[in-house]
């Protein structure tokens, strides 16, 4: 359901450094070893141990140690140049973490999302490539007209469950007049979003608030600039019974609270939607990333809650063709049922 290894990482310094123990499993054979040979060696080790994305994992680790983002971006001369003992030892150490099924993002400590280099650290949820599509859809909708543009020329945005800050910071970087309130119930996520905002020099336009969206009795402090134009979230949406089926990379290292959405994956989604009318401006919008089973479930739930005045107006599919993103709008008559786009990326709106 979710990928354990995701391409497009940032590659400067692993969070673990290279503080080595005496344990040296699967050490490459002695001799003058080039980067290409070391990649081949660790690819074979990873494949033997059943590590997903064996070659990609090996290439990312070697490239990281050599100071590059990807193996392909290395200067060709570095592919065949003998590695130093320190480089070999560092690759050994980082690869040992991968053998324990730690995600590459955590091993290296950085990740690229929407062109931004973000710090990553366990157990904060690792954003997936699908979430970049959610950001792109929000940006498309904002640029279509004045509906989502605030008084100062940019939308006011609330992100629920900010994690590393990937969604909030991407929107801030692409919408220079926007302002964001980012909330999360996890202390580690709040701290990491703060750090990433400072790294990207976006801290002046973001308010980061510890907040549990399921505690709806307190929400006024989420509105420092008044009602928002947009609520955006990639909430926990995995069906509880599916949690045990997730890859070891996810189960062992990522926070289950950021993943488990309850019996039907809807626990946090319904809290967000119940809270949304108190937060949104008239005709404000909610954008959600959900499980492919959720568009129908969310549509039915909204029909059962007419007092919320929220209507599902569009569904979009991800790059694998799965209905994964919802656009829900406050107020206005509900006409017909939303239709998800197929094929391609453009949503089909409710007719009429």
Automatic annotation (TrEMBL):
InterPro entries: DNA_methylase_N6_adenine_CS (IPR002052), HemK-like (IPR004556), N5-glutamine_MTase (IPR050320), PrmC_N (IPR040758), SAM-dependent_MTases_sf (IPR029063), Small_mtfrase_dom (IPR007848). GO terms for molecular function: nucleic acid binding; peptide chain release factor N(5)-glutamine methyltransferase activity. Keywords: Methyltransferase, S-adenosyl-L-methionine, Transferase. Pfam families: MTS, PrmC_N. PROSITE patterns: N6_MTASE. Its EC number is 2.1.1.297. This is peptide chain release factor N(5)-glutamine methyltransferase. It comes from Odocoileus virginianus (White-tailed deer). The gene is HEMK1.
């Amino acid at each position: 359901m979710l990928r354990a290894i995701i391409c497009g990482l940032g590659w400067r310094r692993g969070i673990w450094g290279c503080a080595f123990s005496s344990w040296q499993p699967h050490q490459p054979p002695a001799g003058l070893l080039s980067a290409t040979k070391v990649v081949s060696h660790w690819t074979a080790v990873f494949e033997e141990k059943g590590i997903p994305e064996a070659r990609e994992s090996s290439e990312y680790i070697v490239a990281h140690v050599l100071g590059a983002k990807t193996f392909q971006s290395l200067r060709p001369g570095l592919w065949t140049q003998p590695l130093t003992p320190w480089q070999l030892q560092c690759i050994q150490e980082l690869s040992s973490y991968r053998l324990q099924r730690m995600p590459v993002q955590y091993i290296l400590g950085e990740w690229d999302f929407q062109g931004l280099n973000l710090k990553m650290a366990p157990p904060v949820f690792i954003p997936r490539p699908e979430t970049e599509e959610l950001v792109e859809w929000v940006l498309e909708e904002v640029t279509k007209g004045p509906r989502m543009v605030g008084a100062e020329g940019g939308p006011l945005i609330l992100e629920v469950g900010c994690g590393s800050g990937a969604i909030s910071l991407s929107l801030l970087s692409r919408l220079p007049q926007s302002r964001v309130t980012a909330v999360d119930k996890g202390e580690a996520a709040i701290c990491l979003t703060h750090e990433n905002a400072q790294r990207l020099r976006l801290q002046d336009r973001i308010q980061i608030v510890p907040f549990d969206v399921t505690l709806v009795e307190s929400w006024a402090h989420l509105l420092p600039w008044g009602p928002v134009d947009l609520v955006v979230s990639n909430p926990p949406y995995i069906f509880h019974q599916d949690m045990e089926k997730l890859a070891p990379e996810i189960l062992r290292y990522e926070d289950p609270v950021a993943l488990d959405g309850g019996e039907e994956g809807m626990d946090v989604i319904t809290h967000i939607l119940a809270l949304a009318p108190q937060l949104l401006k008239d005709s404000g919008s909610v954008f959600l990333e959900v499980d492919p089973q959720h568009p129908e479930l969310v549509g039915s739930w909204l029909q059962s809650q007419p007092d919320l005045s929220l209507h599902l107006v569009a569904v979009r599919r991800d790059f694998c063709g799965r209905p994964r993103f919802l656009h829900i709008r406050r107020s206005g008559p509900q006409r017909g049922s939303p239709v998800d786009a197929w094929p391609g990326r453009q949503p089909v709106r409710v007719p009429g």
